[in-house]
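Section 3.1: Structural characterization of target chains.
Under the original work plan, the team committed to producing a structural model for every single-chain target entering the pipeline before any wet-lab resources were allocated. The record below documents one such target. The sequence was received from the expression subgroup and is listed exactly as submitted; it comprises 407 residues.
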Amino acid sequence: MTDTPTGGAASGATPPGAAELTERTRRLLAAHPPAATARADFLRARFDAGLAWVHYPVGLGGLGAPRALQAVVDTELAAAGAPDNDPRRIGIGLGMAAPTLLAYGSQEVKERFLKPLWVGDEVWCQLFSEPGAGSDLAALGTRAVRDGDDWVVTGQKVWTSSAHLARWAILIARTDPDAPKHRGITYFVCDMTDPGVEVRPLRQITGEAEFNEVFLTGVRIPDAHRLGEVGDGWRVARTTLMNERVSIGGARLPREGGMIGKAAATWRARPELRTHALHRRLLELWVDAEVARLAGERLRQGLAAGQPGPEGSAMKLLFARLNQEISGLEVELLGDEGLGYGDWAMVRPELVDFTGRDAGYRYLRSKGNSIEGGTSEVLLNIVAERVLGLPAEPRDDKDVPWKDLAR
């Protein structure tokens, strides 16, 4: 099943440069004027032209160009008022599923899934965490048993964003309970419309049910939808997790974008709320947010030359800390007003909108930032061991068969 791409242009062809990408983009706009073309039709034409992910292979939404040149295409399209693919709604597909499919899927899998994923025709979710395997994800117990050309999957997943909207899921399950926990896992693409899939909402402290728990009962997955080799799912999952942390912590923002922009706007608009102590804290957090923004730019430049590494974990750590500290400052700045909350209605949203809601929502929702996408404690270990080169924490379960672990 492994079909790792070269990432290059068509065989024997020279990858396009900035000038050629500009010309290709202008030809796309001329053939499909955004004002006169249905949004979905434009996005499909863009994918077919290789301008979706320019660094992906030809025929899979790209042209084998350097990743850094995506900005050339995006700038031309934005200036022409072209539609985007609503990346916040399909972020799991774009940021986590797509790079994993590209790295480990067969050619048939890539051709089947990448286009509708990028266009937004099919929403994806991530079936990784379990009630007994969150921070220690490799301890997962969802089982996949081979049955002819299929795998039969039974178990429970939890904290699954977008499961109530998703058509497909990336899933890791245990295929060999006799192997140590990291070596008995296999990675699959799961059909969320299978009759054995049940999605239940998990209501959060915000009142919303953005997350879900997912019960899998005899779900059949064809072996053709396996990514990577049997038992090698942990290596495949690490590709997903590294991309997830980059997509969460390394999102591109303008100066004063995101949470710090809301706090700064409140400060400027409400002089009667200001104190010297709050001013000092706001300045410190503004500087921290700007450092994080610039570090994110550097991280993305590094990505243009290769694959995401453990540095994304550091960015995700910083993202969580800043969101929690800035939202706390904003609530404190507003005083009694900050204790109010706009709407406790139980809804199942399509996306998380930090900046479009009130300060109380930002404060409550940011509490999850240090859990989702890898807990801060786990990420600190990753940074210590894989970035700083510090000795690993001792483990007494590394070589113990999963079935013999204490639970």
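The chain has a mean pLDDT of 90.
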